[in-house]
């Protein structure tokens, strides 16, 4: 059995939905399909999820949301008309109006419930269409199927373990299951959404729950590429990549799947296949636990801006038992997650993401380090980019670091940090943010010999 998730661009209008249904009909193993809300039909268009956010915001501001909700209903009407399933529209309109008109005293819960309706209505519509063309299909409500979530301490939506058991019964469903992505329910029966792009997580959860042979993630690109195609023309296509490699590249900005989507399938060793709805015969990219072949020494190169460094100096730091422990404790108490920690003898640099490390946090943390740890100096720089070279085939091969460093030096890029993990699957470089794209291009040119 295959679980196939289709993203917003694959479901943006009737034409796209027909393509999706053809893909589903082409393989009887595609028994569970997970749908996103209709996405953009062109560059200037607005995603249904964003239209719904506008509905909720109008209501929360105490204004009428009639114009906003009509825009959403119109999107579904357009699609339903072209697919000749207009009799689904009253059900969609009722659903939207009742959720948008419900109690909004808790603004976070209200926003979640309205946002989720993009997926919910799309699943109803797609199921209706599949039935209308003679393929028995069922809209699956996440509450009835038992997809339960909760918010963790950081406010993030996480799955309750019992959901896997509940959802496993979907494999016995005789019809095609059409499951809305992006949301589930709390045990109290309230809607909780994942963060944006979260339908990828729903697909992964369902694939894990039913023990799927593969989790297909249908999008609008033929492959994952070895480097961001906005930086390099016609980059090398990746046909196979491991979960670990993908994770390392995602860390530095590869945004193929939602970053939390790999975990449920990774734990169970279920492969993910990224495919293109607009070109189903393209090979796509497989994410697997063990690779069958290597097309190149390096699998991918990625770079991301947005990091800061905190460098702490203290004479005889290496002799002081518990120094690092105390330093990390301060960061933990201030709610800052540590990304990397390159160190010298009397100095250590902590790399953090700027997003959470605000100027106010910086002040508090620097003061505490100086006072509580008696540090000689603490300096902060806020313009670091991380560039990663990732590839399992690099392990045990000689000279890659030398080539990478030489290519950066001939491009005039100063290396601020260098780090190679013990597993040898990746190398990490820290460069000034201004050099991030140049560094990625220079490394790609050298390591892929283009
Ligand atoms: N529709 C949601 C979004 O736009 C979730 C998703 O598409 O995965 O983020």
General description of the model:
This protein has 450 residues and is α/β, with parallel strands linked by helices. The protein has 15 helices and 19 strands. It has an eight-stranded mixed beta sheet with strand order 3-6-2-1-9-13-14-12, with helices on both faces. A five-stranded antiparallel beta sheet has the order 16-15-17-19-18. It is globular. The mean pLDDT is 95. The protein binds aspartic acid (ASP). Aspartic acid binds at residues 8, 36-37, 47, 49, 118, 181-182, 196-199.
Short description:
With 450 residues, the protein is an alpha/beta fold. The chain is built from 15 helices and 19 strands.
Question: SSE layout and pairings?
Answer:
Layout: E1 2-6, H1 14-25, E2 30-35, H2 48-60, H3 66-83, H4 89-100, H5 107-115, H6 117-132, E3 137-139, H7 142-145, E4 149-151, E5 157-159, H8 162-168, E6 176-180, E7 183-185, E8 191-193, H9 199-210, E9 214-219, E10 224-225, E11 237-238, E12 240-242, H10 243-251, H11 262-268, E13 272-276, E14 285-288, E15 300-313, H12 323-333, E16 347-353, H13 359-373, E17 377-390, H14 400-410, E18 417-420, E19 426-432, H15 436-447
Parallel strand pairs: 1-2, 1-9, 2-6, 3-6, 9-13, 12-14
Antiparallel strand pairs: 4-5, 7-8, 10-11, 13-14, 15-16, 15-17, 17-19, 18-19
Helix pairs in contact: 2-3, 2-5, 3-4, 4-6, 8-9, 9-11, 12-13, 14-15
The structure holds aspartic acid.
Aspartic acid is lined by residues 8, 36-37, 47, 49, 118, 181-182, 196-199.
């Amino acid at each position: 059995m295959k679980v196939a998730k289709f993203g917003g661009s694959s479901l943006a209008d009737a034409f796209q939905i027909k393509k999706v249904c053809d893909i589903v009909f082409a393989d009887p193993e595609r028994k569970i399909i997970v749908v996103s809300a209709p996405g953009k039909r062109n560059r200037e268009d607005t995603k249904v999820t964003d239209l719904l956010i506008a509905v909720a915001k109008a209501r929360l501001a105490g204004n009428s949301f009639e114009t906003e909700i009509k825009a959403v209903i119109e999107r579904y009407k357009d699609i339903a008309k072209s697919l000749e399933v207009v009799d689904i529209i009253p059900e969609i309109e009722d659903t939207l109006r009742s959720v948008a008109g419900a109690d909004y005293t808790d603004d976070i819960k209200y926003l979640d419930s309205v946002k989720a309706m993009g997926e919910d209505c799309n699943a109803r519509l797609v199921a209706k269409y599949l039935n209308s063309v003679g393929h028995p299909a069922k809209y699956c409500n996440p509450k009835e199927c038992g997809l339960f979530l909760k918010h963790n301490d950081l406010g993030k939506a996480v799955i309750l373990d019992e959901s896997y058991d509940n959802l496993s019964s979907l494999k016995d469903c005789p019809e095609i299951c059409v499951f809305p992505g992006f949301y589930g329910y709390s045990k109290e029966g309230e809607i909780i959404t994942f963060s944006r792009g979260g339908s990828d997580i729903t697909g992964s959860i369902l694939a894990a729950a039913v023990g799927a042979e593969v989790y297909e993630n249908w999008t609008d690109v033929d492959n994952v590429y070895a480097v961001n195609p906005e930086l390099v023309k016609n980059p090398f296509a990746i046909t196979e990549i491991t979960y670990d490699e993908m994770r390392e590249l995602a860390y530095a900005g590869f945004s193929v799947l939602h970053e939390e989507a790999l975990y449920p399938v990774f734990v169970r060793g279920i492969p993910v296949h990224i495919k293109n709805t607009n070109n189903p015969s393209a090979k796509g990219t497989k994410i697997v636990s063990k690779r069958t072949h290597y097309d190149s020494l390096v699998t991918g190169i990625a770079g991301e801006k947005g990091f800061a460094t905190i460098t702490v100096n203290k004479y005889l730091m290496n002799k002081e038992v518990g120094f690092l422990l105390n330093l990390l404790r301060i960061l933990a108490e201030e709610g800052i997650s540590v990304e990397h920690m390159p160190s010298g003898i009397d100095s250590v640099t902590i790399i953090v993401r700027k997003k959470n490390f605000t100027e106010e946090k910086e002040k508090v943390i620097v003061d505490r380090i100086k006072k509580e740890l008696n540090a000689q100096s603490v300096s902060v720089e806020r313009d670091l980019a991380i560039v990663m070279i990732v590839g399992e085939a690099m392990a045990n091969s000689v000279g890659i670091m030398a080539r990478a460093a030489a290519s950066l030096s001939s491009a005039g890029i100063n290396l601020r940090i260098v780090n190679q993990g013990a597993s040898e699957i990746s190398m990490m470089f820290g460069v000034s943010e201004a050099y991030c794209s140049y560094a990625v291009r220079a490394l790609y040119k050298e390591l892929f010999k283009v």
